[in-house]
Write a structure and sequence with these properties.
Structural class: mainly alpha
Pfam family, one: N_methyl
Largest sheet: 3 strands, antiparallel
Strand content: 5-15%
Strand order of the largest sheet: 1-2-3
Organism: Endobacter medicaginis
Helix content: 25-40%
Membrane topology: Single-pass membrane protein
Radius of gyration: 33 Å
Keywords: Cell inner membrane, Cell membrane, Membrane, Methylation, Transmembrane, Transmembrane helix
Number of helices: 2
Subcellular location: Cell inner membrane
CATH class of one domain: Alpha Beta
Order of helices and strands: HHEEE
Distance between the termini: 98 Å
Shape: elongated
CATH topology of one domain: Glycoprotein, Type 4 Pilin
Number of strands: 3
CATH superfamily of one domain: Glycoprotein, Type 4 Pilin
């Protein structure tokens, strides 16, 4: 039995349609695609960042409301809201004069921070009419000072 070798397939010349399809993308085509992608990123990124900023404000409002509920629980146990000196730390560590303290009142036993990782501002008594205490986030610009300033997120 003799083995016969099959003839090699014929080579196609470089300018036939089969050879042209194997080439790939030109530099111009790649630059056009990169430019289109860059344009899409430039248009979408600002809108995405605005949404993120709005979400943080919403989270801050909800957190201030939840901390208000936690402060109400503290008041039920102790009989009064924490002093300005004790601040929100009274929710995780028993102040010396807090009879009936049943804390810690937060899940992770830490003083919570606002969505921008700044401490909440707390004052008792309140400087605003019809409020027992002030609990505020300084917002994205970390505004310090009197509650109710533009950009601050405070308890209602």
């Amino acid at each position: 039995m003799t083995l016969r070798q099959s003839p090699a397939p014929p080579r196609t010349p470089p300018d036939t349609p089969l050879h042209r399809d194997e080439r790939g993308f030109t530099l111009l085509e790649l630059l056009v695609v990169i430019a289109i992608l860059g344009l899409l990123v430039a248009l979408v990124a600002p809108a995405a960042l605005r949404q993120l900023g709005g979400a943080r404000v919403s989270v801050a409002k909800q957190s201030v409301a939840q901390l208000g509920t936690v402060l109400d629980l503290y008041k039920l146990d102790v009989g009064s809201y924490p002093s300005s000196e004790d601040g929100l730390k009274a929710l995780v560590e028993k102040p010396g004069d807090a009879e009936g303290w049943a804390g810690p009142y937060t899940k992770d036993s830490r003083v919570p921070l606002d969505p921008w990782n700044h401490p909440y501002l707390y004052a008792n008594p309140s400087t605003r009419p019809n409020h027992e205490y002030d609990l505020c986030s300084g917002g994205p610009k970390n505004i310090q000072g009197s509650p109710g300033q533009d950009g601050m997120i405070c308890n209602p």
